[in-house]
Each structure stands twice: as structure tokens, then as C-alpha cells.
Design a protein that fits this description.
Number of strands: 11
Radius of gyration: 20 Å
Number of helices: 16
Length: 405
């Protein structure tokens, strides 16, 4: 049996029982106050039963206006007991059924352009082809000044709820990520590299000051938007990878306390095939899945070589289906990453790792990489696997197939 994925690792005095990560997958299924519903709870209890060493809880808004959906997760003083119970139940089930205590990370976010009412960093002609926004949607410097305190407050609540760490999220075109490409924005948060990274780094420092030193500080970062400069970060005017600024940013993040970097690429609202290579879906991608998968490896190899002491979560692996664990083991053994992350796969097949350990892995249960889970979310529905989960399958038929005739 392959060994690397089963090897424990200790980071900041916290033991990860294995190298598998269940990636953050938004369900848009919380109550209006941000607390988990039965759907939310069932999803995460399934995750706990799955045996992953690290479970990365989905995007959690730090303020009401920063939610991308009225049912997006949001942690507050009022709903804190519900999150404490969820964490306790996840840990209990993981120990009872898998004999492990997984590390739990809460992802903190401000949805920016994708908020219910768009809150944009600047006018973006490419993104605004998909979702219109005007000058009135551009957030002021004064508003941005208030955000580090929001992150610090939510991080403290996450620790109180029992989470081992927090993710200061900067990816997929949300507010922090869009600021990274605000080359033409005036003021304190645009133009120079220092200005464009100011809010992201200020939030890291604010969270580090707000929580104890044994709390893990992590980020899920779009290392490259794969949108041509000046409208994308980490790319050239020809839309090719450019590591110059990502390298500077990662170095600064490490200085601000970053311990684990969860790699992603692209923007699912604009070029979804980049971060979720798929076999079939709502449109025909302009590149093969193999091109996208190779890009992930190129980016992850570069970061590991440049920052060998930084712990890295590799992404894009759900596509591999029956070759999943062969690919996971290969990337771990080759030093591409320190953890292997799966997102869509665990929604489709939450017992995938336990079945593999038991010699009962079933390729027919694996994620089809069809992105129907994303289709549900984009159509303002709760999101889950519309292939293997009966509830979401019926929802997909009723809300999407019938609507489209």
C-alpha cells in the first residue's frame, strides 16, 4: 500500500493524522443568520466520517454585506453555540469511526464582486461582461480600512468554536484577490505592489494579534488568475504565468505568519475550467483538462522549490477518478506538495479514503468532474453532488433541467 498519504505530520504543534485534505466546498445551505442547517451538518458529519487528516470548512463571511448568498456560512456571537456543536460532533465521529482527530480549518472571506450587492475593487471590463457593476459598486479606502477588525473578530470566534486554524482567503475573484490586480485603482489600496497587497497582509497581522500562537494561519490563494494583466494577478499581458509578484506576496505572507498555503488558480466565475478541470459541462473549455492539471503541478513545484519550509496543499486532483490515489502518492513522493486536496470528490464520495484504505475503493462512485454542483450554486440553489446524492439529484432535475427544458 502507498505510504506517503498515510504519513502523519506536525505543524505548529498540531498533528495531522494523514496528508489528505477535504477542500472547502460551499453549499449555500445555511440559515439566514449564517448558522448551519441540517444539510450543512450532514455534509460535514459525512466529511468527518471520511477519515481526512484536514477538513477545510467552506467560505465563511466576516460580515453580512460580504456574503455571496443569503445562505452563505457566517459565524457570529449569536450562532457560536451551533458551530461549537458542529465541531464537537465532527471530532467525536472522526474518533469513533476512524480513530483520528482531524485538523479543522475555517475559511474566512469577503466575497467582494460576488457579494449579493457587488463590492468591487475597481472597474473590471472582463468580469463585468458576466456580472455588470458600476462606479457606485467600488468600495472606498475607508471601508477597506475596517475589514482587518472583521477578520480578527471572526477568527477569535472560530477559535472559540474549536477550530484549529483559519484561512484568510484570497482567491477566485473575491475582494482580496481582486485587489491584487488593482493596478489602476487610486489611493492606499491600488497601484503599487505594496498598496495592492496591503489589505491582505493587514488582515493576516490583525488575525495573528487576535489569536494565540498555536492557532494555524493559512490561506487559499489564487497564485495566478489566468486573466491578462492588468486585470489579473500572476499573469503577463499575454495571459501566461508570471511568478514575480506571487513570489513577493508569498514571502510577505510568510513574514506575516502564514504556515500553510492552499494553492488554487483562476476564477470559477470567469474561467472555471482553470481551477476545476472537467470532462463535460455547460461549455467547452478552451484547453484540455491535462493542460490545467499540468499547470497546477507547475505552480506547486515552483512554490515548493522557492519556499521549501512552507507547507503546501495541492489541488485539482478530483479529476483523476480511478487514478486519484496514484496521482496523490506521486505528487507527495515527488515533493510537489505536502498535502493532497480533493473538493468535488469528497462531495460525491465522502468515504473515498476509508474505502481505499480498506481495499474497497470503487471508481464508479468517484466524482465525474461534471460541475453540476457548481451549476446548482450558480442557479441560487443549495449545492451538492447531483450525480450520487439523491437529494441534490432531484434538486438538479427540478430546478435546472426543467427550467432549461
Amino acid at each position: 500500500m502507498n505510504e506517503m498519504i498515510r504519513t502523519p505530520i506536525i505543524i505548529n504543534q498540531k498533528e495531522f493524522p494523514n496528508r489528505l485534505v477535504f477542500q472547502p466546498m460551499e453549499g449555500c445551505d445555511c440559515n439566514e443568520d449564517g448558522s448551519p442547517t441540517e444539510l450543512t451538518v450532514n455534509k460535514y458529519l459525512s466529511a468527518a466520517r471520511g477519515g481526512a487528516g484536514l477538513i477545510w470548512i467552506e467560505a465563511t463571511a466576516v460580515c453580512p454585506e460580504g456574503r455571496t448568498n443569503p445562505r452563505q456560512m457566517m459565524l457570529t456571537e449569536e450562532n457560536l453555540p451551533a458551530y461549537k456543536k458542529l465541531v464537537d460532533d465532527m471530532r467525536r465521529l472522526a474518533m469513533e469511526e476512524c480513530g483520528i482527530s482531524p485538523v479543522l480549518i475555517m475559511q474566512l472571506t469577503h466575497s467582494g464582486r460576488q457579494s449579493i450587492v457587488p463590492m468591487t475593487a475597481y472597474r473590471h471590463p472582463l468580469y463585468e461582461e458576466r456580472r455588470p457593476a458600476g462606479d457606485e459598486n467600488i468600495v472606498t479606502d475607508e471601508y477597506l480600512d475596517t475589514i482587518p477588525a472583521m477578520y480578527a473578530a471572526t477568527a477569535k470566534l472560530a477559535v472559540e468554536a474549536g477550530f484549529d486554524g483559519v484561512d484568510i482567503k484570497s482567491c477566485h475573484g473575491y475582494l482580496f484577490q481582486e485587489l491584487l490586480s488593482a493596478f489602476n485603482r487610486p489611493g492606499r489600496y491600488g497601484g503599487s505592489f505594496e498598496n495592492r497587497t496591503r489589505l491582505y497582509l493587514d488582515c493576516f497581522r490583525a488575525v495573528r494579534e487576535a489569536v494565540s500562537g498555536d492557532v494555524l494561519l493559512t490561506t487559499r490563494l489564487s497564485v495566478a488568475d489566468m486573466v491578462p494583466k492588468p486585470y489579473g494577478f500572476g499573469t503577463t499581458e499575454q495571459n501566461e504565468l508570471d511568478f514575480t509578484e506571487p513570489d513577493r506576496l508569498i514571502e510577505a505572507l510568510i513574514g506575516a505568519g502564514l504556515q500553510i498555503l492552499n494553492v488554487t488558480i483562476g476564477n470559477p466565475y470567469y474561467n472555471p475550467h482553470i481551477n476545476r478541470p472537467y470532462r463535460k459541462g455547460a461549455y467547452t473549455p478552451p484547453e484540455t483538462p491535462e493542460t490545467g492539471l499540468a499547470r497546477f503541478v507547475t505552480v506547486e513545484k515552483h512554490i515548493k522549490e522557492k519556499f521549501p519550509s512552507l507547507f503546501l496543499v495541492g489541488s485539482g486532483l478530483s479529476y483523476y477518478r480511478d487514478d486519484l490515489f496514484t496521482q496523490c502518492e506521486s505528487q507527495l513522493a515527488d515533493g510537489v506538495c505536502d498535502f493532497v486536496g480533493i473538493g468535488r470528490m469528497w462531495l460525491a464520495y465522502p468515504m473515498v479514503y476509508r474505502d481505499w484504505l480498506a481495499g474497497e475503493f470503487a471508481a464508479k462512485k468517484c466524482c465525474l468532474a461534471c460541475s453540476k454542483c457548481t451549476e446548482l450554486m450558480r442557479n441560487k440553489q443549495v449545492s451538492g453532488c447531483a450525480i450520487f446524492n439523491e437529494y441534490y439529484r432531484e434538486l438538479y432535475r427540478d430546478k435546472i433541467l426543467k427550467k432549461n427544458g
